[in-house]
């Protein structure tokens, strides 16, 4: 299982819900893939999805791993289940792609990373923000040394693509929202708001995107700043990513949505307010919907985190600030001093993306024309087949889990927490 990969990559999907249907639909558009198995404890769901793609269905992932000839496994279930399934698949010889967040806490994510290291099988974690044209352009600036030594990043809000249950992409801002609470505001399932299923709230749901994106960009800038000027080309400077390591986290989390519909001021909303209230009561709503954090990294740089499902404020843009320049991602702008003139420059990102993809030859042209350039599944498959190396999404996701776990622990203890307390929580003192 999983050895000597050739096209098509034979994929088994665990989870036949919205994410499983989403990923299966996207594989239909990605060359070199074939969905051959679907596993779900809800057997009718597994059978329905499997029949649609001519695959076999299984009542559990263990049976799928034992009986199906797979190259790779795609994990599309609740975060609390990710680690057990991913570890089993890696140990069975399969490569693994896991939906975000990597897991429900750092310890579980560490188990997954250790299993990948131990078995030598590839592990990847979903984060479509790593492939947007805004991220690619910001990384090009960082790789070229145009930002200098980055000392502050903001993980807040970035444009990206969300994929519907049928796999269709839609441009959306990710990371912070004024109004977008899962299920309560009309989309998603009640499980988003159930900590026992989701592992947490907005920090894991949206924070995992922007935190991973900013660690990726700060790692690029860190690598470039370490090169002696003139000694390395931009291509050489981007060849290795030094992911910044979390040192300390101070955070607070908030649960604001239930209070919104308990106030008499909302009575004039009538039946609409009653429906919101009903949905809140149905879910139990025991997760956070707003979080604010300040992360100190081991290299001395800092990361501000703003994430929300529903916050009465315009979205703050994700950004990087360095000693030579700064870049804001939404809208994309570059700030620098040129000839003693303070510059605020925009960019033609579509032209940049077009040129970047076409320079990669026929595969790049095809990816651009088909709109696949922003799909993490496309990049994962290309990496598995040896066509192109993808970013180290599992390493980024693991360090992102150190941030998200640190946010929860700091908010719970009411103080700053150290890395040691995050990665070895049994040693923390109340």
Strand content: 15-25%
Reading side by side through the largest sheet, how are the strands ordered? 16-15-14-13-7-12-11-10-17
How helical, in percent, are the residues?
25-40%
Number of strands: 17
The CATH architecture classification of the largest domain is 2-Layer Sandwich
At the fold tier of CATH, the topology name of the largest domain is Dihydrodipicolinate Reductase, domain 2
- The CA-CA distance between the termini, in Å, is 46 Å
Q: What is the molecular shape? A: globular
Calculate Rg over CA atoms: 22 Å
CATH class type of the largest domain = Alpha Beta
CATH superfamily placement of the largest domain: Dihydrodipicolinate Reductase, domain 2
Structural class computed from helices and strand pairing: alpha/beta
Number of helices: 17
Describe it for me?
Helix 6 (133-143) packs parallel to helix 9, helix 9 crosses helix 16 and helix 13 runs antiparallel to helix 14. With 430 residues, the protein is α/β, with parallel strands linked by helices. Helices cover 38% and strands 21% of the residues. It has 17 helices and 17 strands. The chain has helices at residues 18-27, 43-52, 61-67, 82-91, 106-119, 133-143, 195-198, 202-205, 207-225, 234-237, 257-260, 271-283, 349-358, 362-370, 376-384, 393-413, 419-423, and strands spanning 9-14, 33-39, 56-58, 72-75, 95-98, 123-125, 150-155, 158-163, 169-174, 246-254, 290-297, 302-308, 319-322, 326-329, 332-338, 341-345, 417-418. It is globular and about 65 Å long. The protein has two domains: 9-125, Rossmann fold, CATH 3.40.50.720; 129-347 and 392-427, Dihydrodipicolinate Reductase, domain 2 (2-Layer Sandwich). It has a nine-stranded mixed beta sheet. The protein starts with 8 loop residues before the first strand and ends in a 7-residue tail after the last helix.
């Amino acid at each position: 299982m999983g050895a000597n990969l050739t096209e098509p990559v034979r994929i088994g999907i665990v989870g036949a819900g919205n994410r499983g249907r989403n990923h299966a639909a996207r594989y239909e558009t990605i060359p070199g893939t074939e969905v051959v198995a679907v596993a779900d404890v809800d057997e009718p769901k597994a059978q329905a999805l499997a029949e649609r793609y001519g695959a076999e269905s299984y009542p559990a992932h263990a049976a799928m791993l034992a009986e199906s000839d797979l190259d790779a496994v795609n994990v599309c279930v609740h975060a609390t289940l990710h680690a057990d399934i991913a570890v089993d698949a890696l140990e069975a010889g399969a490569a693994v792609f896991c939906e975000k967040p990597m897991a429900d806490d750092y310890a579980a994510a560490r188990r997954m990373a250790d299993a990948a290291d131990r078995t030598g099988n590839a592990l990847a974690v979903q984060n479509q923000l790593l492939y947007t044209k805004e991220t690619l352009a910001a990384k090009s600036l960082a790789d070229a040394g145009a930002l200098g030594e980055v000392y502050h990043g903001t993980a807040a809000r970035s444009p990206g693509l969300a994929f519907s249950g049928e796999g269709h992409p839609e441009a959306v801002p990710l990371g912070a929202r004024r109004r977008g609470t899962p299920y309560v505001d009309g989309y998603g399932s009640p499980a988003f708001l159930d900590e026992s299923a989701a592992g947490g709230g907005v920090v894991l749901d949206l924070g995992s995107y922007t935190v991973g994106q900013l660690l990726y960009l700060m790692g690029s800038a860190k690598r470039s700043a370490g090169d002696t000027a003139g000694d390395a080309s931009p291509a050489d400077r981007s060849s290795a990513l030094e992911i910044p390591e979390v040192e300390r986290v101070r955070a607070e989390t908030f649960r604001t949505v239930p209070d919104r519909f308990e106030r008499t001021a909302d009575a004039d909303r009538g039946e609409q307010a009653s429906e919101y209230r009903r949905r809140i009561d149905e879910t139990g709503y025991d997760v956070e919907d707003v979080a604010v954090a300040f992360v100190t990294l081991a290299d001395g740089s800092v990361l501000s985190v703003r994430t929300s499902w529903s916050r009465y404020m315009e979205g703050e843009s994700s950004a990087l600030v360095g000693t030579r320049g700064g870049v804001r991602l939404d809208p994309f702008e570059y700030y620098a001093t040129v000839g003693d003139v303070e510059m605020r420059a925009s960019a033609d990102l579509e032209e940049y993306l077009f040129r970047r993809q076409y320079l990669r030859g026929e595969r790049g042209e095809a990816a651009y024309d088909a709109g696949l350039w922003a799909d993490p599944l496309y990049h994962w498959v290309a990496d598995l087949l040896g066509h192109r190396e993808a970013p180290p999404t599992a390493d980024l996701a693991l360090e992102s889990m150190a941030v998200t776990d640190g946010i929860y622990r700091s908010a719970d203890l009411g103080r700053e927490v150290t890395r040691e307390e995050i990665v070895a929580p049994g040693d923390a003192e109340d």
